[in-house]
Amino acid sequence: MPDGPEGWMNTGDLCKEDSEGNITICGRSKTMILGPSGQNIYPEEIEQKLNMLPYVNESLIIDDGGKLAALVYPDFDAARHQNMSREEIEKQMDDNLKTLNSSLPAYSKISRVKIMNEEFEKTPKRSIKRFLYQP
Question: How many CB atoms within 10 Å of residue 41?
Fold first, then answer.
C-alpha cells in the first residue's frame, strides 16, 4: 500500500525521470553528498564507473573535508596473477582516477585514491557499511 504523496512509496531511493517518463534510480538519500556549490552528488553512480576499471574489486566514494576521495579495494588476486608489484597497483589506481575524472563533471571529480588492504565491511545483504568509512 503506497504511503507517500500521490501514491509513491517513501523508500529513500533517489531517481531521475527522463523526457520519456523513464525513471532511473541514482542513489539513496542517505548517501547523497552535497557538492561545494550545492550540487547533488550520488556516490553510487561514481562507484559503478570506478568498479568497471582495471583491477578494481570494489570502491567507496566519500566526502573528505569538502573534496571527494575514492577508497578502493583492488583485485589483488588478478594483480598477483599478472605479477604486479604494489607500486604498479598504485600506478594503475592513479591511471584509473584520471580515466574516471575524465568522464565526470567538474563538481564530482575525485581528488585522491586511497588503497584499502582489506575488503570493506559488509551488512548481511553484502552492502558496504558506508558509515564506517566516513572521516
Answer: 20
Stated length of the chain: 135
Helix (H, G, I), strand (E, B) or coil at 110: strand
Cell numbers given for 44 = 553510487
B/e letters for 91-105, b = 16+ CB within 10 Å, e = fewer, are ebbeebbeebbeebe
Burial label, 1 (beta-carbon count in 10 A; 0-12, 13-18, 19+): exposed
Per-residue pLDDT tens for 27-67?
554 577 888 788 888 899 999 999 999 999 999 999 998 89
What pLDDT, in 10s, does the model give residues 55-114? Answer: 999 999 999 988 999 999 999 999 999 999 999 999 999 999 999 999 999 999 999 999
Q: Is the separation of the CB atoms in 69 and 112 below 8 Å? A: yes
DSSP state string for 57-97: EEEEEEEETTEEEEEEEE-HHHHHHTT--HHHHHHHHHHHH
